[in-house]
Amino acid sequence: MDIVIKEKDETISWEEIHAVIKEAFKDYPTEYGINSDYITQDTEWLKERLTKGITFVAINKENNQLVGTSTLLLANGRFKYGFNRTSAVIPLVGHSGLGNKLLKEEIKICRQHDCEFLFSDTYHNATVANKWHRRNGFMKLKLRATGIVPHYTVRYIMPLKHKWLFNRVTIGTFYALQSTWTRLTKNPDGTRKGLFK
User: CATH classification of 3-166, choosing from 3.40.630.30, 3.40.50.300, 3.40.430.10, 3.90.1010.10?
Assistant: First the structure.
């Protein structure tokens, strides 16, 4: 299968991307008991969620079929980082390394923008997704509660700079300090507190 990866353009519709994501996540309700928003919400919800980032598409050149997608959000706060908003590969090409290739495109963009980290989330009981994150160099950072009870989201982190400095302990400490700094310096409405303006 000859697959090309590129950034989304006007030739690829959000409906096509949503169809790929639904196909990739279709077994989540039966395998993991999760009705992901990516399955239950409409295409407008998805478009609003993903248009803020850079969306990559994987196309099978033989039949011009969309077979995978991922979206990267770039942020610039206390440090620059990327966030893997979503990655999806249809089961037909699953376990072919296409997810890894999409991730490499995200990492390349993160490095071009001088990002320190790449973050990604997945459900705690989505075993294949969790194995994929660990196999690709992500480290588990923390569990977060989701709106889908009793499920939790696992936040993963991949250091892109100074890898030798980081292990689970230092990353956890760094994340805790960054969260504390944010609480100390920002008001609930997001504005800076007087002392730190």
Answer: 3.40.630.30
